[in-house]
Queue: 2 jobs
Job 1
Amino acid sequence: VEVRKNILKKNDALAAELRERFRRAGVFVVSLVSSPGAGKTAFLEVTLRHLRERWRVGALVGDLATDNDARRLVRSGADVQQITTGTVCHLDADMVGRALEKWDLDAYDLLFIENVGNLVCPASYDLGENLRVVLMSVTEGEDKPLKYPTIFNTADLAVITKADLADAVEFRRDDAYANVRSVHPGIRVVETSTRWADGLAPWFRQLEQWLATEVRTPTAVRSTSRATLP
Ligand code: MG
Ligand code: ZN
């Protein structure tokens, strides 16, 4: 426990440095977390395509081994960099910092960080992001938030993905919302599908609201530590 505490403390310090770098460069950073297969990469690909029309966007994508996701995201035309974590099942601030050494942050308005598919330890690792988005697909079961409360509690928005499959899997919408809000009262929840035209519209509306308020006031950075021990 002591060792883990020290690791998280060191991560918090590095994340604070990153947050300051992001603030100075005027780049707004959103991280995405979910379990494997929730559809983060498809969601991010559509997001990057949409945002590229008006914003300068980049993405870092963490993966255990393959660069399949990164190659998919490159199709969006945005700048994408893969972080291969090997046996590590989460990204940490050091990995993000090292990946960004090659990038001129001033050249971006928005940066997305797709974490490794995992709902456990990413909750404890602050990456210096402004906002954390947790995704959960309709196929995962409505009790996901109850099983992984910390990640839902530390997120700023919950996105339900694959809404096109909701009827097929008899998704219990009310239960899902109630569960999300029982671990994080008041959190906003949006439903999306990458298979529908404009299926990400509720997410884009939320994102644009953030951008309108936060990007123009880059000092409004998040200061709460996320180093909660699971
Ligand atoms: Mg992925
Ligand atoms: Zn991990």
Job 2
Amino acid sequence: VSLNLIMLGAPGAGKGTQAERIARERGIPKISTGDILREAVAAGTELGRRVKATMEQGQLVSDELMIAIVRDRLAREDARRGFVLDGFPRTVAQALSLDEIMRGRDPLIVADLAVAEADLVRRLANRLVCGSCGTNAVVDAAGNAPKSCQQCGGPLVQRKDDNEAVVRERLQVYQRQTKPLLDFYRSRPTFREVDGAQSPERVAADLSAAVDSALKQITSTQGAGR
Ligand code: AP5
């Protein structure tokens, strides 16, 4: 069975952090729509020019554009053996299209990272990312960030959409447009909720266990259907 995982959760819930880790551990690609868009903005491509202002205001890019990007990406060979999607779907329309894209492939596993709003605001206000490669800076227990990126040595900067006003807007957009996805997916046997307020290591362990139980569920259902 392929691991076809989607990570749900509010801005700052830790989707990117956990997606990166589980994709590495399981040997499948991490597909982050936020990263794809930020790379396009940084490279100044046609796509980047179209989405820059929308992203800086904390609004969602159009469903049509996002669905086309994800459809193309999931058709690539490396994603046929599984993937971790981070940041997509974000609307019910995107989720409906994803179901259609997934027809004939193993079922989606849906993991929701739950974190209280006050924690989200604090995490995003404190986040620094590498201006060159986009990696999150690792802050130590005393709250100190290193001077430069530990992956590539690039300068650490605040993401343009991490200032307080835009963070508030992103959280509202999440409540309005993305949270309804929980009702869309909750009744599926492969839906799992993970407590995202724990340490990154605990979250990773719980996510891994949740994914394994969902994979088992798929195997037993497929076995029964044979
Ligand atoms: P996107 O990049 O997806 O942003 P987001 O959903 O707001 O998510 P973040 O990257 O802010 O948070 P995260 O949950 O990944 O948390 P992270 O692991 O970084 O999207 C950006 C924009 O692109 C959108 O606003 C929209 O405009 C557009 N877009 C993208 N996809 C789209 C789509 N499908 N449709 C339409 N528009 C789309 O962690 C956050 C911080 O917390 C880090 O500093 C991290 O180190 C820290 N942290 C992580 N885990 C823990 C932990 N367990 N304990 C303490 N700190 C932690």
